[in-house]
Amino acid sequence: MPELPEVETVRRGLQPVLEGALIVRAEARRPDLRFPLPERFAERLAGRTITALGRRAKYLTMHVDGGPVLICHLGMSGSFRIESGELDKTPGKFHHERSKNPAHDHVVFHVLDPQGEPARVIFNDPRRFGFMLFAEGAPDDHPMLAGLGVEPTGNALDGPLLASLLKDRKAPLKAALLDQRLIAGLGNIYVSEALWRAHLSPLRAAGTIAGPGRKARERSEALASAIRSVIADAIAAGGSSLRDYHRADGSLGYFQHSFAVYDREGVPCPTPGCGGHVERIVQSGRSTFYCRACQE
């Protein structure tokens, strides 16, 4: 499942073509993805200008003038492809070939980009776990977005805020960080990486970094900083490109080459002077990778 950095990379790849574009025609080639497409889906988008392309957690939001906000989730295998004229904009080297099977091109936006040039933006999803829904009012009030926590980007997530979110929580630290009601958009990969950067065990009780003492304050500050930095680094690298994920321009992200612990079971811990090895454990049915020697 694409995580926040992957979705933000897709947003940035689509933005030059879609933001300010006129939707000449929206084409739905099947009635549903994970959920049924909204009623009058194509009719309600046709002839409207896209005023903004946003992201909330792992969701893309397409704002159109005088119309509903389109909320899009990529699911496990969803990807966008940009085609302009006869040029298929898919530069980059591939580790895993992105699906271009026309049978899985389920939604097509025929647009005039901000320069007035015709383009097609195609949503391809072999497994159909993605979805597109309309928000009739404010997007944050939609059931898919309501109740999401703070974004792990920028400076809003700092030590005191993180401590307040985790105060008195007895759940393992990793499980608490995956709670989308607390921090929106964090997923399995980047939580493992952030905990390693902060030298905190995924098994420790979440509330132990939220106490009044100096140690707790240092831990919450270190973890908040690690979360922000690992997300920023992954966005800069274009995401992790695991499994079916591809960037909007067709190329793959390369943050996976910088993983310190994720999917690196048995390798020496990269912390200088540590001497430990990366281990894999299972928490709530998900793999966790960490070094017990330096993550306490």
Polypeptide structure, described:
With 296 residues, this protein is of the alpha+beta class. The protein has two domains: 4-141, Alpha-Beta Barrel (N-terminal domain of MutM-like DNA repair proteins); 159-290, Helicase, Ruva Protein, domain 3. It is built from six helices and eleven strands. The strands form three sheets. A five-stranded antiparallel β-sheet has the order 1-7-8-5-6. α1 (4-18) packs across α6 (214-237). The longest helix is centred in the last third of the chain and has 24 residues, at 214-237. It is elongated. The two termini are 28 Å apart. Residues 89-98, 241-247 and 250-256 have low confidence and may be disordered.
Describe this protein with a few key phrases.
five-stranded antiparallel sheet; 11 strands; alpha+beta; single chain; about 300 residues; 2 domains; N-terminal domain of MutM-like DNA repair proteins; about 25% helix
